[in-house]
Amino acid sequence: MSDPPVIRALKSMTNSVKAWDATPLHSIFDQISPPNEPNAQTSTPYFLQAQRFSLTESALFPIAERPPVSADLQTQFNRAIEQCNAEPSIHLAQMLSLFHDYAWAVSYQPTAGEVADSVVSLYDYARTKAALAAAGEQAMLVGGDLSGVQDFIYTIAANRAAKSLRGRSFYLQMLTDALAGWVLQQAGMPSTNLLYSGGGRFYVIVPAACYEQLAQWRRELGQFLLNVHDGELYIALGGATIADAEHNFEALFRAVNDQVTADKRRRFATLDQRELQTKLFTPRGHRGNEDDRCETCGYMGPSSQFMPDDDEGKICRLCESTIKLGFSLHDAQFLCIRQPQPNLAAVKDRANAKDILAGLGLQAEICFDQQELLKYLNRNPEQSIHVQIIRPFADDLAMLTQLRADYRQHVFSMRPIVNVTPKAAKGEVKSFDQLAKASRGIKRFGVLRMDVDDLGDIFGYSLAKASLARISSLSAAFSRFFEGWVGEICRDQNIATSIYQTDQASNQATSHEQIYSVYSGGDDLFLVGSWDVLAHVANRIQHDLQRYTGYNRLIHVSAGLSLHTEKFPLYQAAKLAHHALDRAKDAAPRQAIRKNALDFLDQTIAWEAYPALLNWHQRLWQLYQGEHGMVRSLLQVLMELYSQYYEHSQQRQKSGKGHTAYGPWIWRGKYQLARIRQRHHTNQALQTLLDDIDELLFTGFDEPHRISLRTIEQLGLAARWTQLLIREQGD
After folding, report:
1. Per-residue model confidence (pLDDT) at position 306
2. How does pLDDT run across 346-368, given as a tens digit for each residue?
3. In which band, very low, low, confident or very high, does the pLDDT at 506 lie, cut at 50, 70 and 90?
4. Is the confidence at residue 21, as pLDDT, over 90?
5. Hey, CA dihedral for 543, 547, 552, 555, is it positive or negative?
6. Cα separation, 550 vs 547, whole angstroms
7. Which of 81, 300, 340, 700 has its CA 20 to 30 A from that of 24?
8. Cα(305)–Cα(324) distance, rounded to whole angstroms?
9. Spatial separation of the C-alpha atoms in residues 420 and 525, rounded to whole Å
10. Contacts 24+ apart (CB under 8 A), 210-217
11. If you ran DSSP here, which 8-state letter would residue 428 be given?
């Protein structure tokens, strides 16, 4: 019996690779060019080092020197391929996992008649070629977008948010995977045909004949989600036919996204109108009986769908299951996936997370460590299980090789997930109250939201030769950073230590877990944590993204960071952080600094100015350690000067006179700083700081686009930042 087309396609890729030891893979980010210079590289060429996948700096970050490619890597790959299970579906999944493990950073050497592309890996070529082969001569790209995600995650009781968030976010990740898997199952397609799944969005390749089934898929999935989520969530679908391998894939994705957007605007439009009326527009529950209301999400329904909660209230089955899910995720290493036959009709009411996913054909189990994993595998010897390592390190590679050899009926792969939840001494998830109390100075928790600026442009006219393999490669590259490396940044508990190294008590505090990853994937993230740590986390993320993309000036992130009191509702905090992110992207004219900024303490500053801001802040903090009263007066003067500068600048802008902000604040500042200098003339560190301020404070006002690079703006923010850190310390 001959191999199915998709397996033949993958095998042809392995047989054609002749030069792993010669040609390094260029970074895909080298191909992001200005729209008026489509063939121009924006930076020095960067290369990935061919090695097995892991969440290590040497694996993920490109280098400027052409690295050698070890011939031993190909030998290991071929040996692993030979050990694949003979059963076609298992064989296919195992081959794809091996391509990802060994060939994610290997350049593909084309056969005769193929065109080389130095920025697309063998893995990305293999999975896109296999997907097209499985779909047949006429293929179609289908996209799905899960709407209602923001409200589902964040509209929960503030006092229960900490223990609910991680599980709800992870459930949505799994739900997106399950919805994509259901579409592939309906189309008769293998797992190779999943191009992307994350952030509530997925893309799959199916036969073009499935276009006629899109309406039916909308109805069936819409009915299912209406039953189990009461209209909270909806999956919008869109599709477009792929003409051939040379198709304009940038235009194809745009066409699919347009259809998805149109479907999203008409949620549940394909369903029976009478049922919609009953489900969405009639009173729920028992005429407002508060006894049958979930204390976490507010859902109201029959008593049978609730259970007692630890806090003497009631909780719905879905919330109870996501809380358990989030707790079991903390520091877990393995995610085990099985794919039973879907049965949408089996789940008709609000159910727990596992039952909902199983109805779509996905069963997920979490194993904390290898010992727990082996027990789980030995309990299920007859079923093929896809085991995903969700925090892959270089040390895991030997373990991964051994697992593949010992359990050839299962599939083993790497799947990074940003999975950081802070735990207290007794093992429970820290509440937002505890995160606020762990902060230096003022007791607040922070919410950080970040995303890549102009991502549509990057995937569109900024990405030269937008082939399917290139688009998939670029998407995978962003995912490796946001779904993998961001987690390592969040786990770096010493991230702020060097800034406050003279404060020994605070250094001890930062050794505790202070960051809660609600979500990170695709091109954006949402973190909650002690406010004083999050600013440094944001800076580290943008700095590492610069290195990761080879310092390509077209690729950058903006960030919004908001501060909140202990009991502040999460959904409001999420909105305020999003408003801060919008301000970072839409700050006043900065022609040379488009977006690429941080909004922090209600002030927007370009990342370009952040090193100077941090320097001022650190110097003020160090002075505070030596003489508290002196610094308090200096901070007050600097904040007052910034307030006067800002007010004067706004008045000029409203009058049409531009952003130049010379005014009375200048000579007032000269006078007030001189008085501080006289009062503390023996403090050399202060004198040096005041000399630097005097030299730089009143310069740089003749270039409007330099706003946020002006010293007065940096000093105003640094002073407020430092003041918040020294509040409520009892000195």
Report:
1. 85
2. 998 889 999 999 999 999 999 99
3. very low
4. no
5. negative
6. 5
7. 81
8. 17
9. 13
10. 210/140, 210/142, 210/186, 210/239, 211/140, 211/239, 211/241, 213/186, 213/187, 214/142, 214/238, 214/239, 215/270, 217/183, 217/186
11. P
Q: Does the pLDDT at position 287 exceed 50? A: no
Question: 233-267 burial, b if ≥16 CB within 10 A, otherwise e?
Answer: bbbbbbbbebeeeebebbebbebbbebbeebbeeb
DSSP class of residue 55 equals S
| E-assigned strand segments in 218-271 | 234-242
- The helix (H) or strand (E) run that includes residue 110 is none
Closest CA to 489 of 508, 511, 517: 517
Examine the pLDDT at 529 and tell me if it is beyond 90: yes
- Specify whether the CB–CB gap between 179 and 200 falls below 8 A: no
User: What is each CA distance from 708 to 395, 575, 627, 711, in whole angstroms?
Assistant: 44, 24, 29, 8
**Three-class secondary structure of residue 505 per DSSP:** helix
Sort strands 603-606 and 597-600 into parallel, antiparallel or unpaired.
antiparallel
Single-letter amino acid, residue 75? T
CA distance 197 to 203: 7
Could you tell me whether strands 201-207 and 194-198 are parallel, antiparallel, or unpaired per DSSP bridges? antiparallel
pLDDT at 731: 42
Is residue 716 within 8 A of residue 638, CB to CB? The reply is: yes
Listed residue (62, 77, 58, 73) closest to 22, CA to CA: 73
**pLDDT at residue number 592:** 52
3-state secondary structure of 403: helix
Identify which of 594, 596, 618 has the alpha carbon closest to the alpha carbon of residue 714: 618
Q: Measured between alpha carbons, how far apart are the two ends of the chain, in Å?
A: 81
Residue 48's pLDDT band, with cuts at 50, 70 and 90, is: very high
Each residue of 620-641: pLDDT tens digit? 998 888 776 678 889 999 999 8
pTM recorded for the entire structure: 0.91
Residue 644 CA: distances (Å) to CA of 171, 455, 640, 647, 666: 49, 37, 6, 5, 9
Alpha helices in 192-248 (DSSP H): 214-229
Average the pLDDT over 534-556 and give the result. Answer: 94
Q: The tokens 């850190």 sit on which residue? A: 725
Q: How far apart are CA 12 and CA 112, in angstroms?
A: 12
Strand partners, 706: none
Q: 580, 575, 569, 512: which is closest to 162 by C-alpha?
A: 569
> pLDDT (tens digit, 9 = 90+) per residue, 360-390?
999 999 999 999 999 999 998 878 999 999 9
